[in-house]
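new request in #modeling-help
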Amino acid sequence: MKTFSYERVETVEQAIDAVRDRSDARFLAGGTNLVDLMRHEIETPAHLVDIGALKLDEIDETPDGGLRVGAMVRNSDLAADPRVRYRYPVLSRALLAGASGQLRNRATTGGNLLQRTRCYYFYDPAKPCNKREPGSGCSALEGFNRIHAILGQSEACIATHPSDMAVAMRLLDAAVETASAKGGRSLPIAEFHRLPGARPQIDTVLEPGELITHVTLPSPPPGRQVYRKVRDRASYAFALISVAAVIDVEGDRVRSARIALGGVAHKPWRSEAAEGAMQDASLETAVKVAADELLAGARGHGANDFKIPLARRTLASVIGGTEP
Amino acid sequence: MPTLAGRNRLPPALSLAPQEPRPPKTVELSLKINGVGHAVCIDIRTSLLDALREHLGLTGSKKGCDHGQCGACTVLIDGRRTNSCLVLAVTAQGQAITTIEGLGDPDHLHPMQAAFLHHDAFQCGYCTPGQICSAVGMLAELASGAPSHATEDLNAAPPASDVEIRERMSGNICRCAAYPNILAAIKDAGGLA
C-alpha cells in the first residue's frame, strides 16, 4: 500500500473542501473495496478523506411517497429497514444477495454504487488491463472471461459492474444526489454508470471532487417485485446473471413490467423496447419479447457464452412467475 | 474472486513512471479494545487486524486472505461483526472493538466459545476466532429481526432455522469444512438447538 495523508471530516462542506483541487484524494466510506484496492496498489490516493462521521446515515420519507437514503446508510441497515422490506422488497433482496454479513455491515449505499469491477485482470498488476492502466490492453478478451460482459462491452474492456444493489436501484429509477464545490445535482441512476467505450478507466459520470450524498427512490411501481441471482455458490458470490423485476399482471396478461439485468454489462441493463413490448402481452409472449429485446446484440467471448441462454432462462423463470 | 498472483509486482509502465516520493507516515492512535484504551504509534497504513496482532499482542484474530473474503479476521465494532483486515486502524478510533480475547478467557468462556468446544466445531482452529465473533454478531442480527437472503417472508421476524444460520455465516470460510459442528455449536449457544 502506498502511504497517504488522512483527515476525518464532520460535514459535507468539509468533505468537499478537503478534496478541492486534489485529484489524488479519495473519500473513504466503508472501505470494503477501496482499502483492498489500495492494498493491491490499484488505487494509490495520496490523501484519504474519511467520511465515516458524516450525518448521512438516515432514511427519510419523501413527499411523493418515496424514500431518500443517506449515502452512509450501511447495506445491512438499508436491507433491514421495514419500509424498504415492505415497499421495495426487490432492493432488500438485492442487498441481501450481495457479499457477506460482515461486509454488508460496513459497506455503504454510496460506496456500493462506486465499487470497482471484480474482473480478475483488473486486480492483477502483472497483466494488461485498460481499466487499471489505460492503453495496456484487455487480458480478458482472450483470457478467462467466465464472469464478463455480454452486452455494452467494447474492444477495450469487457468488465461487468459487480453490484446487486445498483441493479435494483436501476429498476426502481432511483436518483443519485451529489454535492461538490460547483453545487449539488441529482442524476438518474440510468445515467450514473458509464459503458466502457474507449475509456474503461472511468466507471461513472461523477466529476473529481463530487460526493454522493443521497439516493432517492421514487414511490414503488405496482406489481410483484423479484430479485433472482444466479451464481457459482449458493451464497457470498458475485452474480453470473441477476434479474430484478417488477411485474404487474392481470390474469395471464402483463399490465406493466420493468426488468433490469445484472452481471451482463458495465452497468445495470434495462431496455425500454423490452418493457414496451411486454405491456399488454400474454406472459408467454412477454418472456420471449423481454429476452429478445434485452439480449439484442448480446455476444459472448468464449467462456461466458453460457450467459446468453442463462439470462434467457432466468428471465423466463422470473417473468413466468415460477419464482416466489 | 480476484486473483492474488502477482499482486506484489508492479507492471513496468507503473514502476518507470515518475512518482512523488512518499515517506512513511506514523500516527499516534487511541483504540478502545475489549473495554480498555490502548495508545499505539503505528504506520498510517496499518489495518485494524495488523494493529491488533502485530502491535497489541492480540493474536486471536487471524489473517487468512487479508482481502475480506474469508472472515478469519472478524471482530465486533460497536457490536457489529466486521472484517478487521478491511478497516484502517486510523479510522477505528472512538469505536468499541471486541476481539475473541474480549469475549471470554480460558477460565471464563463465552457461551459461544464453550459451545464450539463442546461440539468440536473446528479441526485446525484457524478460522475459529472469526467464526465465534461472527456467530455472536450474527445472533444479535437475527434477534433484531434483520432479514437474510434465506428469509422467505421479508415482513416477518426471520426464523432461527438451519438454512438461515448457514446463509448468515457464509462470510466465514472453514478450510477444514467443520460446518456441521459449527452450526450445532451456534444453535446450542443461541438456545436454538
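bot summary: The longest strand of chain A covers residues 241-250.
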